[in-house]
């Protein structure tokens, strides 16, 4: 009898050394799917900041009948980085916001098909700022979020843009596109911090100051865009008045301290066209001629549309993102789930 039972037990064991259990949150394969799916989510989104993977919270894995691939359903926890979507950077190159940078966190429900590669099918994400009370409770002196519509926030963004335009050596002036984040804290006075996107205008640096109010954003695929972060220490004394181009309009009694740093990104059309030039040996056919000349990094002239054989990558609108408070969620069902967190903000009342 004992010999018979042993034979039966051996017959029930997985054959060929294959694992019978589906991958769990600690599985390198599952983590790879989560990482690559998040990269595709960031590429698909049009606004906001690039997200970083905090942990794989839950997953299910279903082999596709008649196919070699599998369908993964993932729940991933994400954290906002300091990189704006405009930058197009891989999320692994971006720094997660710490407690002093108005951190944002959330979770995504993700569907991805996996064969030899990971292909994102859909996603639905919910994100929110860490409450100011949670930040202050841990770090009383840290900046806290400001309403983006506050006049002082708009003033700070404009002052920062003015300084950028004044000090920039780029060919054209830039104009404000969107204010994306704002915060404040008390330093030697009320200090305001802003982040915003900018876009190249049709006005060159030779444009007369009186015409700057008429400078419209460049409406073409070769327009440069940028992302800026700046600060402004507000003081009650009269300060230097500047026009949008950064030129001085008035006398200074007491200048408001303004700092700004901007990254300017090469247009995708330029990068794609450069690749096309290299592939074709930099030789255009007659119908491809155009005047698109780079003078030096981030400066160019153009008069016609790009070459007709240029194809730009376009997001597919595979998912949605909403901002809303955190709500209770079900315990993970996957084995070894949730996986470990990769980040720790050190908050007392919020585990992030």
From TrEMBL:
One of its GO terms (cellular component) is extracellular region. Residues 304-324 have a biased composition (Polar residues). Residues 137-263 form the Cystatin fetuin-B-type domain. One of its GO terms (molecular function) is cysteine-type endopeptidase inhibitor activity. Residues 273-352 are annotated as: Disordered. It comes from Pundamilia nyererei. Residues 340-352 have a biased composition (Basic residues). Residues 325-339 have a biased composition (Low complexity). This is Fetuin-B-like. PANTHER family: FETUIN, FETUIN-B PRECURSOR. Residues 1-19 form the signal peptide. Keywords: Disulfide bond, Glycoprotein, Signal.
């Amino acid at each position: 009898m004992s010999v018979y039972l042993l034979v039966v037990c051996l017959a029930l064991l997985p054959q060929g050394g294959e694992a019978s259990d589906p991958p769990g949150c600690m599985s390198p394969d599952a983590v790879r799917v989560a990482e690559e799916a998040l990269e595709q989510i960031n590429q698909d989104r049009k606004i906001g900041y690039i997200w970083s993977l905090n942990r794989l919270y839950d997953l299910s894995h279903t082999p596709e009948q008649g196919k070699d691939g599998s369908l993964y359903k993932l729940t991933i926890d994400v954290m906002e980085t300091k990189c704006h979507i405009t930058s197009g950077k891989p999320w692994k190159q971006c720094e997660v916001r710490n407690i002093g940078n108005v951190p944002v966190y959330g979770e995504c429900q993700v569907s991805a098909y996996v064969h030899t590669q990971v292909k994102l099918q859909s996603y639905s994400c919910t994100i929110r700022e860490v409450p100011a009370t949670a930040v202050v409770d841990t770090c009383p002196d840290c900046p806290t979020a400001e309403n983006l519509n506050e006049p002082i926030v708009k003033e700070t963004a404009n002052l920062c843009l003015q300084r950028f335009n004044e000090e920039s050596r780029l060919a054209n002036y830039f104009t404000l596109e969107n204010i994306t984040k704002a915060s404040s804290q008390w330093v030697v006075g009320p200090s305001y911090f802003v982040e915003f996107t900018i876009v190249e205008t049709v006005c060159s640096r030779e444009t007369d100051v009186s015409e700057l109010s008429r400078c419209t954003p460049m409406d073409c695929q070769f327009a440069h865009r940028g992302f800026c972060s700046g600060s402004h220490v507000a003081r009650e004394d009269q300060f230097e008045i500047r026009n949008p181009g950064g030129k001085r309009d008035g006398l200074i009694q007491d200048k408001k301290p303004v700092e700004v740093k901007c990254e300017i990104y090469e247009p995708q059309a330029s990068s794609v066209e450069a690749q096309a030039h290299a592939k074709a040996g930099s030789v255009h056919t007659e119908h491809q001629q155009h005047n698109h000349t780079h003078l030096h990094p981030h400066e160019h002239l153009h008069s016609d549309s790009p070459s007709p054989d240029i194809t730009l990558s376009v997001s597919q609108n595979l998912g949605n993102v909403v901002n809303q408070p955190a709500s209770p969620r079900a315990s993970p069902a996957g084995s070894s789930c949730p996986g470990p967190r990769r980040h720790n903000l050190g908050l007392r009342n919020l585990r992030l």
